[in-house]
Amino acid sequence: MDLSSALSRAFRLCLLVLLLTAATPWTFASAAGPMPGGDTAMAAALGGVGELMNDDGEDDGEDDGEDDGEDDGEDDGGDDGGGAGLLKFDQGEFFALESGGVAVITVERSKGETGAVSVSYGTADGTATAGEDYQSVMGTLEWAPGDGSAKTFSIDLTSDGKDEPDETVQLTLSAPTGGAAIDARRGTAVLVIIDAGGTPPGQDDDVGPGEFQFRKGGFQGIEGRGEVTVVVERDEGRQGAVTVDYGTVDGSATAGEDYQETSGTLSWAAGERAPKTFTVQVFDDTVDEGNETVRLVLSNPTGGAVLDTGDDARSTLTILDSDGSMAACTPGANTHCLLGGRFQVEAVFRTPQGGSGDAGTLPVSDNSGLFWFFDSSNAEMLIKVLDACNVAGFNRFWVFFAATTNVDFTVTVTDTATGVVKQYINPQGQAALPVQDTVSFDTCP
Q1: Are the beta carbons of 336 and 345 closer than 8 angstroms?
Q2: Which of the pair, 198 or 177, is modelled with greater confidence?
């Protein structure tokens, strides 16, 4: 498939996605048909933008960050089973109390439901011994055509009255039929038998001192609106008293000018796991400077606790500028004025060769508009601003957009009633990710 056809197909899909995400009463006023060509020439001029889609029409860009329906949220790397699906344990580890008498194991069918399929399961000794600690089992699980439900099997456990360490049983899937495949990572799993009187990890979260993480990867505040509250969580355990230090570090924002530098220590008592908070004071100024960032860091955990090993151990505070234009929005060749003219929306793009330009506009409706970069017959982006001020739990304005390009661009949305500005940036070479911002514009009357 050439790039022109791929972009045309992807753009229509993006229009459909945005139409579906804008629930009644916010509806998209029109639909776009296939766009004319021209991207092939553009790709040559840009030094090869590259195809955004495979010949089969499926997006081969970056992960869109949405849950793929698997428990761990990660790509399992397995084969898609030719439409019949992947068969896998729904966890890498299962936990059961020895005194509970039984462990229930769940097996999933994902990424396909074509045809009838089956898979065999079985147990093998780990540190636990069949006949003494558990009863070995083997059997077959079956799915009918179109059946994507989870299946289970049970393992009987024996309470032996001994004071002993936790013991393990190896779980295995084998012999898939009907064209299905076994997941490469989760075709095996482990059952952990907790000694009588213990508590399964992950159920009450009281095994071990735990780990610290920020509740979110990003926090936001509007310049001059006072304090921003940052939430830190203790997860994966609550044994013993623990502490962790927190602090702020300049990103593009400057301490003392844009925000008040802060640091301190958060403490949890033994058995406590409620989230703790600290605040960052955000200052106002009169400089039109766009969004600025502050790095949030955790350090020095005590009491045996540790920092989360993933991205949740660090976070960013984004300070939204409130010094944007409050002049009436004037629609033009490079400016959309949406929601009765309250929101001014503009975009600029940059090429790999260092060129740049203002995106052209193609009006659609009062809340929606298109942008083009190189040719007005080849739209690159659909953007809309929705009024959710009367939606329970939100009370904000929403910004949605999707772009079918991997060119570097910046979209700037200004609320001319308050001067609050939010910028959305796509780096060069990345297939643009869709934006569903229901948080930033906390500017309802």
Answers
A1: yes
A2: 177
> Structure tokens of 255?
């301490």
Tell me the C-alpha distance between 65 and 176, whole Å: 30
CB–CB of 118/143 below 8 Å? yes
Contact 366, 345 (CB under 8 A): no
**Tens digit of pLDDT for each residue in 219-268?**
878 877 778 889 999 988 888 899 999 999 998 888 988 899 999 999 99
* pTM (2 d.p.): 0.43
The secondary structure element, H or E, covering residue 11 is helix 3-21
Cβ proximity of 228 and 280 under 8 Å: yes
Burial class for 293, CB neighbours closer than 10 Å (0-12, 13-18, 19+): middle
Say if residue 25 is preceded by a cis peptide, omega within 30 of 0.
yes
Map residue 417 onto helix, strand or coil: coil
Give Cα 231 distance to the centre of its chain.
18
Evaluate whether 371 touches 379 at the Cβ level (below 8 Å): yes
Residue of 347, 350, 351 lying closest to 361 (CA atoms): 347
- CB atoms under 10 Å from CB of 261, counted, come to 14
**Closest among 392, 399, 401 to 438, alpha carbons compared:** 399
Cα–Cα distance measured from residue 444 to residue 436, given in angstroms and rounded to the nearest whole number: 18
Coil, helix or strand for 262?
coil
Q: Which residues contact 62 (CB under 8 A, 6 or more apart)?
A: 430, 431, 433
